[in-house]
Write a structure and sequence with these properties.
The protein is mainly alpha-helical and 250 residues long. The chain has helices spanning 9-20, 44-75, 78-92, 99-103, 112-115, 117-127, 142-152, 155-168, 218-221, 225-232, 238-248, and strands at 173-180, 185-192, 204-211. The longest helix is centred in the N-terminal third of the chain and has 32 residues, at 44-75. Bound molecules: fe (ii) ion.
Length: 250
């Protein structure tokens, strides 16, 4: 395999300018339900803090880092560009962003989901939840329910698998039910910190993502993550997951 010449500073600056041109700042999305509507599974206090403080902080830091990145690129400050990538990765989840893209040329657009993942992870999470009076916790019927039975044996076995894998995540992270849209099969994956699901496979589409950071449960469940995982299924929005699955596997 031929070796690539290292990029010059000007080439790199031009590359980054092209790559970030389409990036945008974000604002906190509204929830479709009240903070207290998921009780007793998840307390209103947790939901409010999680949404207004934690999610907002990711967005604020991401927007700030993006602005600083624009400035650093305009000034040709390569070391600042490299440093800012870690802030973008953590707050936005952009683990693919950076020299990787240069060395393995791909357009940015297919990676948008990964670059924005800290924000996107939480945006998906809010949609994955629904108050019980609005169908939260009602298991899926139709094609997703059938696929779960086929791949995992039963809904109970899927829940047991996700609870076990979610409880085993060291430190902070996520446990996902996803569909591999190319292989047309369901998978359970975990990701660390705010890494996006796409880091586990470019064709994976999240159906249900469960946040297992302590900030998602500690105020109510203290350090007993398995209890949080056991109860969150009472407010999982399977209607949303079914719609995504039907779109990806018509
Ligand atoms: Fe979170």
């Amino acid at each position: 395999m031929a070796l690539r010449a290292l990029p010059s500073g000007k080439t790199l600056a031009r590359f980054y300018q092209q790559q970030i041109r389409g990036l945008q700042t974000f604002t906190l999305p509204d929830l479709a339900y009240d903070y207290g509507a998921l009780e007793p599974a998840i307390s209103g206090e947790i939901m409010q803090l999680h949404h207004q403080k934690h999610h907002q902080t990711y967005i604020t830091n991401y927007n700030k880092a993006l602005e600083q990145l624009h400035d650093a690129i305009a000034k040709g400050d390569a070391s600042a560009v490299v440093k800012l990538q870690s802030a973008i990765k953590f707050n936005g989840g952009g683990s693919i962003f950076g020299f990787y893209i240069y060395l393995y040329p791909i357009t940015l657009s297919p990676c948008n989901a990964s670059i924005f993942a800290g924000h996107v992870n939480h945006s998906i999470f809010w949609k994955n939840l629904a108050p019980p009076r609005e169908g939260g916790g009602e298991p899926p019927h139709g094609s997703l329910g059938w696929a779960i039975d086929q791949h995992f044996g039963s809904m109970e076995k899927l829940i047991a698998k996700m609870n076990a894998e979610g409880a085993a995540v060291q430190g902070s992270g996520w446990v996902w039910l996803a569909v591999d849209k190319e292989l047309k099969r369901l998978v359970v994956e975990t990701t660390a910190n705010q890494d996006p699901l796409v880091t586990k496979g470019a064709s994976l589409v999240p159906l249900v993502g469960i946040d297992v950071w302590e900030h998602a449960y500690y105020l109510q469940y203290k350090n007993v993550r398995p209890d949080y995982l056991k109860n969150i299924w009472k407010v999982i929005n399977w209607k949303f997951a079914s719609e995504v699955y039907a779109k990806e596997c018509p």
